[in-house]
Write a structure and sequence with these properties.
Helix content of chain A: over 70%
Oligomer: homotrimer
Number of domains of chain A: 1
Shape of chain A: globular
Largest sheet of chain A: none
Membrane topology (chains A, B, C): Multi-pass membrane protein
Protein name (chains A, B, C): Trimeric intracellular cation channel family protein
Organism (chains A, B, C): Leucobacter muris
Largest interface: A-B, 33 and 33 residues
Main location (chains A, B, C): membrane
Family (chains A, B, C): Belongs to the UPF0126 family.
Order of helices and strands of chain A: HHHHHHHHH
Number of strands of chain A: 0
Structural class of chain A: mainly alpha
Distance between the termini of chain A: 51 Å
Chain lengths: ~210, ~210, ~210
């Protein structure tokens, strides 16, 4: 298949992006070198492991295909030694997380569809793969996962996965679907951060300061 | 099988109850509309996904059978727009959580037994299915899961699952087992809350205020 | 196979050690008897369940082989009634956790290799099995998992798993590999605690007190 190389590059890029985001969180939390590598690696390969467990791929690809783990380890180690100062580190976390989110959502959906899953299942698998690594990272460092609190986070993953499935339904290749869907998700997520787009919060009665709609 | 419709109704009712409980927690934590929908949906379908991964059903039913996710989404959205005020919201959380717990524990055990698992495995699968959604909800919003701290929580799930298995062992249908076991679990859980039944805590030496037995 | 009995003893010993460590944490957190039993049992059998889900063993062995759960329950209950005072309880937690870590890492790797997995996969499976129970325990009680913060924690698991795989590659039995690898992991982990061995932390700019290398 002509897109095997594209697939591999997108997979490893997504793993690298998430591993960097996880390692940056580890550095900010002042974990030691091993803690940084563990949280970075889990974040990098975690979404794919969840995907493989959902689809019944045993053992997960990251346990048998060494480049996945190698990329996650190298990315995490690199962050330990070279990283921005404390005042800018959160900015980098968000950017690399967005790249991981976009790459995994579209690519995960395209892969599931190409493997014969229905469009609904493919979109769900892509979305779960994309948010899985970040949820693991945030639960490990004991914070509420960004998917519950960040601007258009799950929406961006859904858009990326849905666009990828739509492109393939219209006859596009899975490589094209992964690239276009992924780019759309990344742009949507980063734009929502830059513009501070927030969705409405619930009205709750009898609490001071609950006036927002 | 005559009980397929009963099974489907019980499944969707359990998903709806857990989704509502999760969305209520999201509202109380003041998540935005998407955060409320994500935590509600994960809580609604999470237990079943864990069950399917344990039993080797790939992909999980909620990824292929759209009514599951639809019910979870609609329930979560409804809670976002219509919910009790802050002073009563915890009360509703507990009630819907109890219904999810009861519906999933007995129904999960009955389904596993009907699928050929042993009674022990069926009881464990039912219990894990019942507490899985709530554990996911509580871990996501960063609190200690209720199964560790709430009144007779795991006991209620075990009773519901065990009663369902016992009814089937005595020749009852899986629909009857799900209904009776589920009702017993719900009544036990809500009674323990209403009466404030607590189990003994450990004695710990050398700590002020550790006098309770 | 001659080492079946050895395997069973090592498995149950690992489950018992992790269940005791989990129950001790539950006692320290002042959970009631059921909470202590739930967190102890999940910690005891959790790593093995993760391993089985990764390898595609459905349902997990602990759901079908009753001694696993029985040992976890008995160990947790025993801790509820007999445990050290608050000033020494953390010490016992660390020791039992180290035994669980060592027993599971080497034994998990040896089992995976004997089942036909590659050395890389076997080492990863052993490591994940060993740290899985502790991660579940720490996430449940809402603290950052020890694998991210404790002295040589993941390194000890990796050494145990790697040594077990190396011994089998050199012709040793899986029983010998489990014993030697497990002992090495336990000794390494406990020595690192006793000596206070810590790995370097990241340098972070513009933060007071960030001088350590």
């Amino acid at each position: 298949m002509v897109s095997t190389v594209v697939y591999e590059i997108l997979q490893l890029s997504g793993i690298l992006a998430f591993a960097i985001s996880g390692a940056l969180v580890g550095v900010r939390r002042r974990l030691d070198i091993l803690g940084v590598v563990v949280v970075g690696s889990f974040t990098g390969v975690g979404g794919g492991i969840v995907r493989d467990m959902l689809l019944g791929v045993h053992p997960p690809v990251s346990f048998t295909h060494w480049p996945n783990l190698a990329v996650a380890l190298v990315g995490s180690l690199a962050v330990f030694f070279v990283h921005p100062g404390i005042t800018r580190i959160r900015h980098f976390e968000v950017v690399f997380d967005a790249f991981g989110l976009g790459l995994f959502s579209a690519n995960g959906a395209a892969t599931a569809l190409a493997a014969g899953q229905t469009p609904l299942t493919a979109i769900l698998v892509g979305t779960i793969t994309a948010i899985g690594g970040g949820v693991i990272r945030d639960v490990l460092v004991n914070t509420v996962p960004g998917v519950l609190t960040r601007e258009l986070y799950a929406v961006s993953a859904l858009v990326g996965a849905g666009l990828a499935v739509a492109i393939m339904a219209l006859g596009g290749s899975d490589g094209l679907a992964s690239l276009v869907g992924g780019a759309a998700a990344i742009v949507l997520r980063l734009t929502s951060v830059a513009r501070g787009w927030h969705l409405p919060k619930p009205r709750i009665g009898r609490e001071p300061g609950s006036a927002e709609s």
